[in-house]
Write a structure and sequence with these properties.
The complex is a heterodimer of chains A (86) and B (444). Chain A is built from 3 helices and 5 strands. By secondary structure, chain A is α+β, with helices and mostly antiparallel strands. Chain A has one domain. In chain A, β2 and β3 form a beta hairpin. Chain A is globular, with a radius of gyration of 13 Å. In chain B, α1 (12-18) packs across α3 (84-96) and α4 (132-145) packs across α5. Chain B contains 12 helices and 16 strands. Chain B is globular and about 75 Å long. Chain B has helices at 12-18, 60-69, 84-96, 132-145, 164-176, 194-202, 217-224, 233-246, 265-276, 302-322, 409-413, 418-443; strands at residues 4-8, 29-31, 35-40, 43-48, 54-57, 73-75, 104-108, 151-156, 181-187, 206-213, 250-257, 282-288, 325-326, 346-349, 354-356, 368-369. Chain B has 444 residues and is an alpha/beta fold. The model of chain B has no long low-confidence stretch (mean pLDDT 90). Classes of the chains: A alpha+beta (86), B alpha/beta (444). Chain A binds chain B through residues 8, 10-13, 15, 17, 19-23, 27, 29, 31, and chain B through 16-19, 21, 78, 83, 86-87, 89-90, 93-94, 96-98.
């Protein structure tokens, strides 16, 4: 899976701010905190939920269970917005 | 909201990008670099050059958390300047999402002029006037590329009234096509007459005319060097201002100021104010011809420039206190463009139908033609800005809004200096006080 390639993004005050350039696919902007921003960054390349969890564990030194909760919550939100290509 | 009130709301786009800053009582805060603060009676006005928000604070401690949330105060160690290019890039991205189109059209009906001002930046430009065929294509082009509900047209030249037929053709064409429009004009004011003003209000939807004066009667007549005139052009123009105001068309008197006329500006202003009284339809703007931000061939010494700027500021304050309209800075906060040249909604149409983006260099640059009927994209280089801010900018609250276009010959020519900076900050203060006064008039 992969994030739709329609965003211009910048780090502003420790948040990732993403502006959609295609208002037909998504009309809005996303502000993500550090961890959500990291997941979104990983989703710029084709990846899987498992890979995302492993990356989170490595980067933040958290348990797999906690990483899994975080990843699935972010993926759920992105899917609801139609921003993930499976 | 005890202790403060919002005089002007923050920009929705900027607040969406920044979000609200979380207040944390354990953190230390400082006033943001982009805040201009001025005192009014017992209260303070805080203006954010980032968000465009204006707040009146009467009890600082009660307002503090709100001021933090809305970026008036920031965490002590935050590097705000680092965010400026990023925010601009995202604002541009937001702007680019909308369908390409224009809502501001600057239409040059002719490059001919009945005056002969030595300082004019159009001196030496190719002479041409718009034909009926081109005017009809302009109508079609506007129809194809209009975004929004109304086309805002500004007639310009040369002297636009040297080719009123082009204005007639375009206005009639737009009306026939059912396209809503209103118009403004930049003119020397000499060629207006009863008939033209009647036509202008009825057919051209003319709402405002900016008329340039170069000083008091004698100085103005000498500098303008109108061709084929009998009576004093200055007096003739004043009569035309009266006709325009009587017809409900607002007039902006733009006064060019230089060392040769600086001492007579107050006299001109008083003369106009006495003749026309205090009316919402009349306002003033002042421009030093050696202003550092314009293409200018006039050079003056630092002392002379300082004196000119000081006098202009004195006169602006004088007019403001008398309740007479004076053109000052817009309180917009951070915007995706810095001038007409990089505003994707603005287009300049030359008399021959060629397209350009800057009214000051249209003779040397054009980027397309109305003939192909399509939206004309600006080259990406139009969005490259000079961020070579010198030490003078370090404590300037307008740092965030001041990003000269790297292609602009005027901004390349000079950099900001103390005189210019003082002047624009005084202008900002005047705009803030004007906004506050208007708020009080409406709300109290």
């Amino acid at each position: 899976m992969k994030l739709l390639n329609i965003f211009e993004s910048e780090e502003i005050n420790n948040e990732k701010v993403m502006v959609s350039l295609d208002s037909e696919k998504f009309n809005g902007l996303i502000r993500a905190n550090d961890t959500a921003g990291y997941i979104i960054d990983c989703l710029k390349n084709d990846t899987s939920e498992n890979e995302l969890i492993i990356n989170m564990v490595k980067k933040y030194g958290i348990t797999e269970e906690r990483a899994s909760l975080g990843v699935s919550s972010i993926l759920k939100q992105l899917r609801e917005l139609g921003l993930i290509i499976e | 909201m005890e202790g403060f009130r919002i005089i002007r709301e923050a920009s929705f786009a900027v607040m969406s990008l920044c979000g609200e800053q979380k207040y944390n009582f354990t953190r230390q805060y400082r006033l943001s670099d982009f805040i201009f603060r001025c005192e009014i009676g017992d209260s303070s006005l805080f203006y954010s050059c980032l968000t465009g928000e204006l707040v009146e604070v009467t009890k600082h401690e009660k307002a503090f958390q709100y001021l933090v949330r809305h970026w008036f105060y920031v965490e002590k160690d935050l590097n705000e300047k680092e965010n400026v290019p990023k925010l601009r890039k995202l604002l541009l991205a937001l702007d680019k999402r909308d369908k390409p189109g224009y809502n501001r059209f600057e239409i040059l009906t002719t490059t001919n002029c009945n005056a002969n001002c030595s300082y004019c930046y159009e001196n030496g430009f190719k002479q041409m006037s718009m034909s009926k065929d081109t005017a009809m294509k302009v109508v079609q082009y506007i129809k194809n590329n209009l975004c929004g509900f109304e086309a805002n047209i500004r007639w310009y030249g040369g002297e636009p009234l040297m080719n009123t037929k082009a204005i007639d053709w375009i206005s009639e064409g737009l009306a026939n096509q059912g396209i809503a429009f209103s118009s403004k004009m930049i003119s020397n004011g000499y060629l207006f007459s009863d008939n033209i003003i009647q036509k202008a209000t009825k057919n051209w939807n003319l709402k405002n005319v900016r008329i340039t004066l170069d000083g008091a009667e004698q100085t103005h007549n000498k500098i303008k060097q109108f061709k084929n005139t009998s009576q004093s052009p200055f007096l003739h123009i004043m009569n035309n201002v009266e006709l325009l105001l009587s017809a409900g068309v607002s007039v902006t008197i733009r006064i060019n100021v230089e060392k040769h006329n600086v001492e007579e500006i107050k006299e001109v202003v008083d003369q106009i104010c006495i003749r026309f009284g205090r009316t919402k339809l009349l306002d003033f703007m002042f421009r030093p011809l050696s202003n550092t931000n314009r293409l200018s061939t006039i050079e003056s010494s630092v002392e002379a420039r300082r004196h000119i700027y000081n006098r202009i500021n004195e006169i602006k304050t004088y007019l403001f206190e008398k309740g007479i309209g004076v053109n000052s800075r817009e309180l917009t906060g951070l915007t995706p463009h810095s001038c007409s040249a990089d505003d994707r909604r603005y287009l300049l149409i030359k008399p021959n139908g060629e397209l350009a983006f800057c009214p000051e260099d249209f003779d040397v640059k054009q980027y397309g033609s109305i003939s192909n009927g399509e939206y004309c994209f600006r080259p990406s280089s139009y969005y490259e800005y000079r961020y070579d801010k010198g030490t003078i900018c370090n404590d300037c609250p307008l740092y965030i809004c001041c990003y000269p276009n790297s292609l602009c010959p005027a901004s390349k020519k000079t950099v900001c200096n103390e005189i210019h900076k003082d002047s624009i900050l005084k202008d900002l203060e005047l705009s803030i006080k004007k906004e506050y006064r208007n708020y009080i008039i409406v709300n109290n």
